Amino acid sequence: MRFGVVRFPGSCDEVDALHACRRFAEAELLWHGDRDLTGIDAVVVPGGFSYGDYLRVGAIARFSPMMEAVIDFAESGGPVFGICNGFQVLCEAGLLPGALLPNDSLRFVCRQVEVIVEATDTPFTRTCQPGERLSIPVKHTTGRYFAPAGTLPEDQIVLRYAPGQNPNGAMDDIAGVCNAGRNVMGLMPHPEHAVDPLTGSADGGRLFESLAMVPA
Amino acid sequence: MTGAAPAARHRELGLTDSEYEGIGERLGREPNALELAVFSLMWSEHCAYKHSKKLLRLLPTEGPHLLMGPGENAGVVDAGDGLAVAFKVESHNHPSAVEPFQGAATGVGGILRDIFAVGARPIAVLDSLRFGELDSARSRYLFEGAVKGIGHYGNSIGVPTVGGEVMFEQAYEQNCLVNAMCVGLARQEDLIRSAAAGVGNQLVLLGARTGRDGIGGASVLASAELSEEDASKRPSVQIGDPFEESRLVECCLELLERGLLRSLQDLGAAGLSSSSSEMASKGGVGLDIDVSRVPLREGDMEPFEIMISESQERMLCVVEPARLADVLDLCARWEVRATPIGEVTDTRHLRVFDGDELVGDMPVEALVDDCPLYDLDPVEPDGPVYDNPQARLPRGGSAEDTLLALLGSPNIASKRYVFEQYDSIVGSRTVRRPGTADAAVLVLAGDGGRGALAVSIDGNGRRVACDPYTGAVEAVLECARNLACVGAEPLGLTNCLNFGNPEKPHIAWQLTRAVEGLRDACLALGVPVVGGNVSLYNEGGGGPIYPTPIVGMVGKLPHPERAPGAGFTDEGHAVALLGPFSPSLEGSELEKLRGRLAGGLPQLDLPAQAAALEAVRDAVRSGSLASAHDVGEGGLACALAECCIEGGLGARIQLSAVDEEALFGEGPGGVVVSGPRAVVEALPGAVGIGEVGGDVLEIGGAAAVPVARLREVYEGAIPAALS
To answer: Is the pTM of this model over 0.90?
Structure first.
């Protein structure tokens, strides 16, 4: 099992994501200008400020050569996991429904929050229990999830912020969603920053652990 | 060469008549306009430290862990296991007072470049901020803008902001302070110096295009008092682009890792002029620069503008010709602009060409080393320098009311509004986040090191205003005490001296006494000063700022998993006070709220304070303490309240005295610890004061306040002041 973690210019959390993946499987960085996904079993689109988040968050990264390959990979059923800026990129790419809007505070927020696992029938949450709470930090300015009525079936909501902990005003406390094929997931919390109790929590490791169970 | 500078132009550029004559003597002729512009910046206070250099020689700069001391882009100390830690604090006060968002953002950008210029990866930022009182609209604007700017830059570039401090005092109303500190990590063999070397080697400019932003920033903004017309100086404030810098960081670190560079230097104040002449000076060489090769943002820039532009996100490196192609290839991969703009010569002159035309020719020594240094003329003022602060709290309230008033004072209240706007966790090293412990703790396991670093930044200008010597000593002690509370031993210290106009005798006295205090405290603790920054002329319409030496320290601790937080953790744990702690209301936050600024601080026993720090460190390192928290602003009662709020637990406290001095008095040396009773009672010198439990902070005979109420006031104060 081998993870590939995309590195765009302006990515911030790609190395942290790489190390998180390596706790559970092999992993390598994927350069934004390449297109080769040979040998990669799951793709992580990491957090940060790809291309400076200029124009609109995720809007430029979505057109990089590597993202073309990732879109093909996703469309043929490969698991793709977008964290924070990666979630924004996957929404821009049309791989996930909805969009991320500026936080209702209009400020960056960095905070440990609890999320509730709403769906366990995905490659990302298969080792979790329904209703399980995970302590994972958020850090973003543009994390308020929104999807127009009728575009997000209830069963595609994978993670919700625990009651009273919604940090950004997201619709229905949504923290993470998947696509209809359930092989693409995006979330605003940063599970790669929750893989070691020494630095706050190990709960985020559950998501990488689940993904690492993908048959090689 | 053409065009002698018009007469008296030098005065507009901030040079005195005698300095101007000195330039002529060194050149053997009148300087032309470009040369005058370059000299005016190189001989500015900001670049030449002409009023502080002699004084700074007092500071001890040697220590067992030192790898690079003052003079390089940043100080560097040995962190063990082949690792080196680079760190430095720098001010961006005047730009932030003119345009807070960009001023603060580029302050962060600039200090990051100082760190990766020595080959270290930036791993943490800390900030020390000072504004006027929050009931002023201007102060709220500066505060909100500066915090947003720091977050914008640090967050975007993927370097965590792990700590800092903010204080609000009337004396900073016109002239806010924005000091940013960066900490970087390198393998020792990857460190690089800035000395240019190797005649015939290429000088390559990396990063952003050069524009007109920040022209003359060093002399216009940083080396003169602020005035009413500062809005018109906005074009002198640089504009930051963290996306450019993030590629520049990765590109420079990879260039160094592959051994492709001979030397590296950032472009900061005075831009190309300063970076090139300093590289040449350190290497004992000359440099030829062709400004026509410099990539420009605006096509019609004059050669002098190109030489002094302070456009951000640029670095200058020296490359051997044989490696130039590899350098350019790697830069292209990172989409970092790289342009050979000149070469190293043996002339010991900085020669500036515009194509084939020689447009400036200056001896490097004259630029870098010959700026006249001035002796200060310190005179102790015979009366108060500052007005008393506005009274906000009547005397005679109950201890409970006083405690709540202090917890709700913005200087003491929770800074959650600030630190939640900063990414404090990127990099996966952050063991102790802002607000949870007295110092940030950064684990080194992922970098091939053992243990962790602890970092803190501290200062209290009001106390320095009361007594410059003791106040400066206290700043060093507080920083060291914060490190001790997580079990760390200081490796080195950086400082930023924020003062008013040193040409005024009473400011010169403040500066001199404060530096003497820093010296004595550093000697007592055995901590070297590895670098720093001086920001003078911090005066707005209302007079000078409080004298504000800011101290940043990096320490090392062996067991990050044992580093306690500040908050109580367990019902039934014993609470004790470590000392020596002799609280006094002089210079305290309570006296400030009551509208009085003291005329002095109690003397302190420096050897006893140093020994006490060691005792705290040893106690923490034993791993048996549950919490440790420094007694700071607001005294023991506020420290206890903070332990309760952070831990979500009450405490039952019995003190031998419950007068205002005992409850709210301040002074160095106090640390509140908690843990199992047998452990706490066995600590040498510990005074048992109670136990953790319940949901009320009870101080016998004085106060009983539910923790929920304490939290409401503590957490609510700053958001309420801003809404």
So the answer is: yes
